[in-house]
Each structure stands twice: as structure tokens, then as C-alpha cells.
Amino acid sequence: MKFTSTRDSNVHIDSKNALLKGISDEGGLFIPEEFPRLGEIETMLSMEYKELAYHILENLFTDFSSDELLECVNGAYNDVNFSNPHIAPIKKISDRYFVELHHGRTSAFKDMALSVFPYFVQTALKSSTDFEEIVILVATSGDTGKAALEGFKDINNIKITVLYPEDGVSSIQKRQMQTQEGDNTYVLGVVGNFDDCQTAVKEIFMNREFNRELNNQRIQLSSANSINVGRFLPQIVYYYSSYIDLVNAGEIANGEKVNIVVPTGNFGNILAAYYGMEMGLPINNLICASNDNNVLTEFLNEGVYNKNRDLILTTSPSMDVLVSSNVERFLYHMSNNDTKIVSSLMNELNESGSYEVSDEIKSNMNFVKAYYANEDEVNKKVLQTLEDEAYLIDTHTAVASVAYDKYLADTDDMTKTIIASTASPYKFTSDILKALSVEIDGMDDFEIMGRLSSFSSTEIPVNLSDLENKAIRFRDISSKDEILDRIKDFIGGDENA
Ligand SMILES: *Cc1c(COP(=O)(O)O)cnc(C)c1O
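# pyridoxal-5'-phosphate complex -> structure
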């Protein structure tokens, strides 16, 4: 399997190089040159999560030896990194199935891929003749940053820097990052929103001079955002595991189609579901759920992508995104791999902030339905799900559940439906308690967690209650213009020490 670029069909590199580079030289994103067919689901029914991960990823990362890949998946999907033995357990709640993707070390679905991704990078680095060190640069809307920091902390020859929007993450998310341990970690708050952080990261990747300086020191810059193939491809696995769990539980017949609802920000998670579909998973429709930042709802329904609007800070901050990077990959597939179309649309987006796709692309995208939920609907959904079903969901998952209600109202589609539950409610405690009309005035973060626990009769994830005992290590805040200097200080500073 080789990887090519969404913007240049002459690119053919193996997965290790795609992992290390993160993004293609001309600015495109790497994609596998074809979708491998995985074969009969029957043969996967008895696999546990890490076996399934191995089975799926060996078809994509074919330049990994089987020993290398085994080490990666065994190191990632175990009881050290996941508090639930099923890794991604599935719960039937009323007429829908929630796949809980938040039992990893940082209580968000980003752990699903970021527990294995550092192993990929380490393995690729060992095979590299060009580089001795990797600097991982991450822009986060709250969850990726912490999951990446945990995954990469204290790994030899790798440094990691995370940029988060100073006022765009929850108080718990900020605390998770500010208390990060590890000698190779650096966390920087940015005055701006997530798109500012993401733009800064992209500019640093495209900064030839800076990259040359690093390369001369045999350092390679890479990313842990879902633009990296090592980040989004492992996300295919839990769509398979969910499907298999439903077959094994007798909820669906093998071969029966399902819908999948994904609360969406950067379009990585839902793209992984689409890849699963192309690789043989029986999927009817995908449902893309957005919050008030409903760029994607508009795009999928009308064919016009328009980021020219203010970003709204919502109670589902990990979805507060206007420029969803992985739409680029989706456009590539929906245009039948037309790199010219992708390049020109991405140029338009850069220059005017919007673009419109052709009727053909629009009709190809028709299996992805899109709905959004406003804040009021999200709050009601959190409350109603707890009251009626005794099930506590977080705000992002609530966005998805509202979107599914709207889809049902529109279609009467009876297809069994899986909703991606992407975070623990304990990362967004204040907003959840407000949705539940529970008074929290004057309480600190940890009192609020305790209140949510007693009110909902659920347990606080240990990684979050433990934050109370951890010292704050990172208080730096930077304007957009100073980001590169701060990063240089971090990379250089350590070298001289
Ligand atoms: C990142 C994130 C999302 C959005 O996922 P994308 O892959 O960026 O679309 C949704 N919910 C939560 C809790 C997240 O952390």
C-alpha cells in the first residue's frame, strides 16, 4: 500500500514516511492509494479489539513488519490505557446504540487513536535514515492536545508542543493540559480561537526556512492532528468493533446495514466511518452532526462550504471548528480522486473563504446526511437522556443524539443506528450541570465533579479526579505572532540544556 496526496497524484510514499511527514510537501493530505477490502466480517466476529486493530491496520500500514505492528497495537489497546476491558463498549439506550469512545487515559475519543499513534511514530522513526528526532506540533480544540501529550510524554527522540485557544476550551480540559507531565512536553495557550491555532500550525508546516533549519539538525516536524494518517486510520477500528458487537449481541444480522451518527468538528471521525464503509462495513447512511457552527450542515445539504462567519463558542468546544481539515480528503474521494479539483477548491477556500462543489460531487455525497443542534436542544437532550434513560451523555454526544432525532423526524428510516459517544461528561461538568439545572455557584472544578457524580449516580474517571493533586506546569499564553518563537525556544532550549 502506498499513500498519495489529495493535491498531487505523483506522490507515492509508504506509510512510515506519511506518518513522519504528516502533510504532503505541496500542502495536500495523504490518503491510501486504494481502499483495501477486508473480507468477511464472519472471520472477525471472535476478535478482541487489539486483534481487530491489527487485522485492519495490517492492510493499510503494509510497510510495518508484523512484529512491529503487533507491538503497536498491543502497547496501545490494553488495560493500562483503557479503563474498560472492551475498549469501546456499546450501550443500547432506547432506540439507539452509543459506542463509548471515552474510556482511554484522557476521557475523550482522541485516545482511541492517540494511544497507538506514538508507537507508529516511534517505529517509523527507527526505520528513518533521514531523521533522528521528531517534533510533534498539535493544534487542539481541547481533547486532541491532552490525548497527544499523554501518548507522547517521555518518549525518546520525540518532543511535543500543543497549542490551544486560551478561551476556547473547558476548564477541565485546560487543567488537563496545564498539568501535563513529561520532559519533552510544551503547552501554549493562544489568544484566538481553534482556527487560529490550526492556521498557525499549518503555516509552521509550510514555513520552508524553519523546516530546513530543523531538517539540517535531522529533526522532522510532524502532526498529531487528524490530518496525519496515523491519527485517523486507527479510528476505522471502532466502527468495525461496534458492528461486530451488535452482531454478536444478536441486535443485527451479519450483513445488515447500520447508520452511524458522528458529532463532527474536523471531519476526521466521520471520515474514518466512511473508510470503514469503503472497506466493506455495511453502512446505510452516515449522519454528520454539528453544533451552532453549522458550516458542515450547510455544506453537505447545499454543496457550498462557507467559513465566512464568526466562530461561536459553544458547550461542545471540540466541535467549534469552521475549517474542517478532513473535508479535503472527502472531496478527493467524492470527486473520484481528482487532485485538480481538490487543489482548486482548497485555493478558493484560502482566498475567498468559500467554495461550491459541482452537482456530481454533491450527488456523490448524498449518503452523508447533516443536521445541527443549537445550545438549547443540546441542554434538553442531556437532561432528557438522564431523566428518561438514566444515561449520562456529554454535550458533544448530545449534539449527535439531537441530530439523530432530526434525521428520524425527516426520514422514518428504521435502520439500526450507532452514535459515537466522544467524550466523558466529566470533561464538561459545568455545562452538563447547568443543562441539568443543578446549582454550582461558588464551587471549584472538583466540587463540581463530585456534584455531578452524586446527582447522576455515575463515577468520576480517575484520570480527571486525579488532576486535583497535580501541579500546574504550563501557564504560557502567546499572541498569534509569537507562536513560532515560543516553539523555537522550546525546541532549542532543551537541546542546549
Ligand atoms: C474531536 C472531537 C470531536 C470532533 O471529531 P472530529 O474528528 O474532529 O470531527 C467530537 N467530540 C469530541 C468530544 C471531540 O474531542
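# post-check
The longest strand covers residues 158-165.
The mean pLDDT is 95.
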